[in-house]
Amino acid sequence: MKMHGHGGMREARYAEASRIGFLLQRDGPAATLIWVRRTLAIYRRALLAPGHYAHTAEYHLTFLASCLEFRRWLAANGGYRIRATASPHLPV
User: Can you tell me the distance from the alpha carbon of 4 to that of 42, in angstroms, rounded to the nearest whole number?
Assistant: First the structure.
């Protein structure tokens, strides 16, 4: 997942939108909502952990772009208004 500069941000946005589209078709909206929330939480924790590779120049902007794409999707799809049912062991 090497993506440098602003082109990398566009690629990350496309990659996340593509993954979300695939999950919507395969698993449906409720499971996709859970996945987006969980993955956003994982990526945010990575960005906040100083020793994580998400802090390297090679990946930092990619992680940020992915988080922004997840937030855009959640905002556009009611992800901030409703809570999907999730396993109590999974962060959402």
Answer: 21
Helical packing angle, 5-27 and 60-76, nearest 10°:
40
Residue tagged 């941000």 (tokens): 9
Query: Residue 12 burial by CB count (10 A; 0-12/13-18/19+): exposed, middle or buried?
Result: buried
Domain count within the chain = 1
- Evaluate whether residue 85 is within a structural domain: no
| CB-count burial class (<10 Å; 0-12, 13-18, 19+) for 48 | exposed
Q: Does residue 27 register a pLDDT over 80?
A: yes
Task: Give the predicted TM-score (pTM) of the model.
Answer: 0.74
Which amino acid, 31? A
In a domain, 58, yes or no: yes
